[in-house]
Specification:
Elements lengths: L1 H17 L19 H5 L1 H24 L3 H17 L8 H4 L1 H6 L1 H22 L6 H13 L12 H4 L8 H5 L1 H16 L1 H6 L3 H18 L14 H4 L1 H6 L1 H22 L6 H13 L46 H4 L12 H11 L21 H5 L10
Helix pairs in contact: 3-4, 3-11, 3-16, 7-8, 7-16, 11-13, 11-16, 16-17
Length: about 400
């Protein structure tokens, strides 16, 4: 009788305990497509950086859950550790719930939103990298449609950053308390958007490879003097990838809303003003998902030429003038054997005549590197240290 009672109580305890757990595996499966892993197969180093970014985000959130008041540790030892991860990024995409078990257990709906949007990031990288996809515009819009069918999707119109990210009582606390960590996360977000421009504008495999490597070098350059070379504000898609943002405004808005959510999550986790952190994050996610509130109709969060654009009418590839190619990482023919085609000098942009000469000599224009306007160093900043951080095997030789 006693054993039966003990078993009964044990069953009741398990049932009560399980009722407090909620299912996390609610994401739709990754779209099966021939382009899957095209970016990894052609731009392996860039892919490993994305893996490192996932690891860095998870590491930061876990630290903010477990020891947010230990600023010296987070800005010191933990930041130095994640810099080491960026030096030798993971070869495979990490399982973030294994890196941040306490964060994902407490805020699994937030992690689901992150996972679903990060999946779209990788899908679009693969589409743009796959030479066998001739109508990339249609493929990108189809992938975006698939993303939007799920309940974890963020809204495909720009939301009011000045209210949702920067206008809450707790806003900007993370960037104030942890400037180095905030800076590296903003650099992550620049690169995640920044690779779209060379992938979009590159006319062949070689141009795409050189452009992605140039973007990677700029990212690596930004972290060699933290936080002075980190972006001074949260990078927006129209800054890092203006051509992509104009031709695919839905995807661009989704990614900017995602990056806004990353900032909001960090602020909520560190703020003493927020008692119900889970509730506040669910509220903010709902605002970033609904179709009526805080839509950025007048372009407060957009750049030149973006304000007033109709979000539901993406421009087709080739519509209107393309964004000018940047010459932040000029080619030097005489150095290509030693340095893989990248200039290790001052990084000063070449003159128009020099660019024309280089183009004729190589039978291709200078590499379409992503915009650097939102980096403190600005266009033409020296990125020799950034290029040195990339293993030579992954620097394309032209």
């Amino acid at each position: 009788m006693l054993r039966s009672s003990v078993r009964f109580l044990a069953v009741i305890a398990v049932a009560v305990g399980c009722s407090q757990f909620q299912q996390r595996d609610e994401l739709m499966p990754v779209r099966l497509a021939t382009h899957n892993y095209a970016f990894r197969n052609r731009h392996y180093y860039g892919e490993t950086l994305f893996n490192g970014f996932d690891y860095g985000h998870a590491t930061a959130y876990e630290a903010l859950v477990k020891r947010k008041d230990d600023i010296a540790y987070i800005e010191g030892e933990l930041f130095d550790y994640i810099m080491g991860v960026n030096d030798d990024p993971p070869r495979l995409q990490p399982a973030e719930e294994a890196i941040a078990p306490n964060f994902t257990k407490a805020y699994w709906p937030v992690q689901n939103v992150f996972d679903w949007a990060h999946g779209l990031h990788r899908q679009l990288n693969d589409i743009l990298a796959d030479p066998d996809i001739t109508d990339k515009h249609a493929a990108i819009e189809e992938a975006t449609d698939y993303y939007l069918r799920h309940k974890h999707a963020l809204h495909p119109r720009w939301k009011r950053m000045d209210i949702l990210m920067d206008g809450q009582p707790y806003s900007k606390e993370f960037r104030t308390r942890y400037p180095k960590w905030n800076g590296i996360i903003w650099a992550y977000h620049w690169f995640q958007n920044g690779v779209y421009e060379p992938l979009h504008l590159g006319r062949n495999e070689s141009e795409k490879a050189i452009g992605v490597t140039a973007a990677a070098a700029l990212f690596q350059c930004s972290r060699h003097a933290p936080p002075t070379k980190f972006p001074p504000h949260m990078p927006m898609s129209w800054e890092a990838a203006p051509t992509f943002a104009k031709q695919h405004p839905r995807a661009a808005a989704i990614f900017d809303n995602l990056h806004m959510l990353h900032d909001i999550v960090a602020d909520v986790l560190v703020s003493e003003k927020v008692k119900d952190k889970r509730g506040e994050l669910l509220r903010m996610i709902a605002l970033l998902q609904d179709s009526t509130s805080y839509i950025d109709e007048v372009g407060r969060g957009m750049g030149p030429g973006m304000a007033g654009m109709k979000h539901d009418e993406p421009k087709k590839d080739g519509d209107g003038p393309a964004a000018p190619m940047k010459h932040d990482m000029p080619m030097k023919h005489e150095e290509h054997k030693e340095h893989g085609g990248m200039d290790h000098g001052s990084g000063t942009a070449p003159s128009a005549s020099a660019s024309a000469s280089a183009s004729a000599e190589h039978a291709m224009p200078p590499p379409p590197a992503a915009s650097t306007n939102n980096f403190a160093g600005g266009p033409g900043a020296s990125c020799a240290d950034g290029l040195k951080s990339i293993p030579p095997a992954y620097i394309p030789v032209h």
